[in-house]
Specification:
By secondary structure, the protein is mainly α. The termini are far apart. Helices cover 77% and strands 0% of the residues.
Length: 133
């Protein structure tokens, strides 16, 4: 691999990390808005997407504060673990205007918690039957 290829690959990976971090953070924050039952019109939700776009552009240009913020946000996303996935899905639903009554949101949260507990406590490998190997 030549130095040019390595530089191109590094730049591509950096841009991919930058775009996915800001997108995931935006979706998770929108998921929190969905969970709280916040309702806005379409143009207000569109305006809420602008800061993430501006932050991503400034981050790509090398603004140190935003690079540090992206690193911290990446750690926060990692700390959320599996919870970031349903929050991001709910955030996408909220951004396109899908809202639900509080009973639906509560039921969904309970179901996600129960399924997560099931996967957490389920054995990850098949039990041995005691037969020959």
């Amino acid at each position: 691999m030549s130095a040019t290829d390595a530089t191109t690959n590094t730049a591509r990976l950096r841009m991919q990390a930058l775009a996915t971090t800001w997108t995931c953070v935006s979706l998770v924050l929108a998921g929190l808005a969905w969970a709280l039952g916040l309702q806005t019109s379409w143009w207000q939700r569109a305006l809420l997407a602008l800061p993430a776009l501006v932050f991503a552009i400034l981050d790509a240009r090398g603004v140190d504060a935003l690079i540090d913020a992206r690193v911290a946000l990446t750690r926060c996303l990692a700390d959320l673990g599996w919870v970031q996935i349903p929050l991001a899905v709910a955030g996408g639903a909220w951004l396109i205007g899908l809202t639900a009554p509080v009973s639906t949101r509560t039921t969904l949260a309970v179901l996600i918690g129960l399924i997560a507990a099931l996967f957490r406590y389920a054995p990850s490998t098949p039990a041995s039957t005691g037969g020959a190997r």
